[in-house]
């Protein structure tokens, strides 16, 4: 959606195809990091975005063995957006769609399920929909997630980096508090993250890969008891989990394509590199990809230039930060989560103990989580402003 907004903003006729009738999906990434907020600031849309209902997370901590440790303090970051905005993804997507619809070159089709590609003799020429319709395009951007149909249809090679964990998502009701109480808990061989969504916690119980069936076989009462023991703050309301229908499994993937493109097609976001939920960085890396793609491709496409020779530049621009973040996630999987799940009485890593002794150092993990590596800035053109500066009117194409 962000990529489409930026391409249409540059005057490139752009169609977003969404297979569902709406964006309403629970247990999706809701963490809008400072890097993304800063991008909307550069577009002049930050105040309007933050007018949507959201909660601010200014610091992140963890409770390990009953002791609270502060990890990242986003108030130490530069710029205006010194917090993570917790905003349901459907609100975020609705906001981008509303702004994009103001652009003559943008269109959005809901209920449009892609089932395959149109492949010519030299390049990808468009997509095929489930209703038999064919839509032709000079460039197809595969932004259809970790189970990407387009990526698979294009035959792009994928490297599986291995993820030793899965996540069980569930909701626990709570009273709304003036401060956001997002927190991670490590204790009794459990790791549970509670994301404060105002009147409920969106909770993630990290489990060993493939352990969901064993946990389900033990019964929902045992599930509630284990969660309450690890996170006493949830004990009074954990009864809201009545059946396994209240618990959703996220099969965690960690992979990346060795080639993100072929003539006529470019993969970005989870379609190019599935991220672990560690750090909640997936949505923000995907948006960074979108900005890089627009920075490199939007102006040439607006002039009718063949984009194929430029597609590799997007991968070269974005591959380094993806590799670094995935390497960090693999270390966390092995050295933090793995150790926590093996140890009934965990001890905080030395780096966490150091962050408590020298609080100013909490700005470093905040910078890594909040701003990322090699972050992007808006450099794609604005067709309306260009027309106005030349004394004309914005294009209606």
Q: How many domain modules?
A: 2
* Strands in their spatial order, largest beta sheet: 5-4-14-15-16-13-17
The helix count comes to 12
Structural class, please? alpha+beta
Q: Beta-sheet strand percentage?
A: 15-25%
Q: Provide the CATH top-level class of the largest domain.
A: Alpha Beta
Percent helix among the residues?
25-40%
Biggest sheet character = 7 strands, mixed
Mean pLDDT: 91
Which of globular, elongated, flat, extended, rod-shaped describes the shape? globular
Number of strands: 20
Ends distance = 19 Å
Q: Give the low-confidence spans.
A: 393-397
Q: Could you say what the CATH topology of the largest domain is called?
A: FAD/NAD(P)-binding domain
What is the rounded Rg? 22 Å
Under the CATH scheme, the architecture of the largest domain is: 3-Layer(bba) Sandwich
CATH superfamily of the largest domain: FAD/NAD(P)-binding domain
Structural description of this entry:
- The chain has 397 residues and is of the alpha+beta class.
- The chain folds into 2 domains: 297 residues, FAD/NAD(P)-binding domain; 86 residues.
- The protein has 12 helices and 20 strands.
- The C terminus is likely disordered.
In short:
The protein has twelve helices and 20 strands. It is of the alpha+beta class and 397 residues long.
What's the structural blueprint in terms of helices and strands?
Blueprint: H1 2-9, E1 14-18, E2 31-32, H2 34-42, H3 46-50, E3 55-57, E4 59-64, E5 67-73, E6 84-86, H4 89-100, E7 106-110, E8 114-119, E9 124-129, E10 134-136, E11 140-142, H5 149-154, E12 158-160, E13 165-173, E14 183-187, E15 190-196, E16 200-208, H6 212-217, H7 220-230, E17 247-250, E18 255-257, E19 261-262, E20 265-267, H8 282-302, H9 311-342, H10 350-357, H11 363-371, H12 383-389
Parallel strand pairs: 1-7, 4-14, 11-20
Antiparallel strand pairs: 2-6, 3-6, 4-5, 8-9, 9-10, 12-18, 13-16, 13-17, 14-15, 15-16, 19-20
Helix pairs in contact: 1-4, 1-8, 8-9
